[in-house]
Amino acid sequence: MTKKPIVLWAFIALKFILQVVVLSPAYDLQRDEYLHLDQANHLAWGYLSVPPFTSWTSSIILLLGNSVFWVKFFPALYGALTLYLVWKAIEELNGNFFALVLGATCVLFSTLLRLNTLYQPNSFDVLSWTALYFVLIKFCKTQDTKWFFVAAVVFAVGFLNKYNLVFLLIGLVPALLLTEQRKIFAQPKFYLALAAGFLLILPNLWWQYQNDFPVFHHLKVLSERQLVNVNRMDFLRGQILFFIGSLVVIISSLYALLRYEPFKPYRFYFWALFFTLAAFTYFKAKNYYAIGIYPIYIAFGAVYLGDVLQHGWKRYLRPVLVAIPVLFFIPMFDIAFPNKSPDYIIRHAESYKSLGLLRWEDGKDHLLPQDYADMLGWKELASKVDSLYSALPKGTTTLVLCDNYGQAGAINYYTNYGVRAVSFNADYINWFDLTKKFDNLIRIKEKADPQEELQETSPIFEHASVAASITNPYAREFGTTIFLFTGAKIDVRDKIKAEIAEEKNFQ
Hints:
Number of helices: 23
Radius of gyration: 25 Å
Oligomer: single chain
Strand order of the largest sheet: 2-1-3-5-4
């Protein structure tokens, strides 16, 4: 085996090792992860929250045993494949060995380490952006129209993972029109590839149509409740922080795309970056939505720097450039990853606050970063629900009704008694099993007034009590209350159906 493959596999191995090191066992899974895992039990061509690709990965995880190891393996795998594609892009651009090492280092010691800790569509989204950009490099280099069809497949799979990939097209189309690569639009096979891509995503579009396009409701809620708190300058500032150790390389790529003669066929990448960022900024997107843009620019920058730093005193800058991403990573290791306990974070709150890590989607600062608070209290909740569920009389049926998808997903993931919790929130609204009459109700309410809930629900049951609550003060779910109602006096299914219909009409 030659030197290059050995070094590539060493980088990939280090990637997987670091993904383990940056996670502390003090945390559970994050609330979104539970929902995505539960989708494996309800396979469909679409969901209220995400397209279907994540459910396919969840099905594989379920077949493998549904352990935390596999939950964390797949985002790490998608991150490793992103690094692999950047390496291959550098080879396609005729980069030397230094360029390969520089590019791999920049990708490895970047925000992708943080992104790849969570089982969410974002890791595969970044891979999809990188893959589509890579396919365009292959077409520009070979002019072989088969790459149109490869691009169509890559886009379709990426779209079925996260609709965010549409922003790549928004930035790419005007960029192509500004350069010599506009000739792409004159090729008949380009439109055949478009048709093929459309057919691949058609099942999901049909699902959206049949369900009254819930994606638009999701975007509306996102805009009203989360993006309203997004500051456009914070978005742009985030772009710098994500790949701060690679800024020299990314800036070099932009210069090279304009002035470096071997990159002339790829000049549209220069314009695509700005058009895409402009679209994200205009729509007040969350800053991490744009992470997928940058890995391919690291490839361009690494190739250019590898070429211009070959001779004379400039070659001594090579180890400096490789060291910069590592040196930036070292201080970030302590504050940018969930590898420190909640107590540690609270004692060092200023370090986290200065980077905006304590700011939640509500626009306010809290004790912990939102993702970390969303990784606490779930095992406690599931354990307490299991305890109540197992003590109920045999032969009775019990509805476990939650306020949000995190609660329902966590209970379903950790249960030892086959509990299938539901909620009127997110995809769970479509997952109620109303084929049986319910005898009991376990109700999980966020920061509820116990007397108010008891007064509202207890007349329907013979017995009612406040059974437990989440006691972890650092959890976002702290104070969530668990109510137990037994001996239903009426069939509550009609009431549930009415609430489902009301919620869907609201949506």
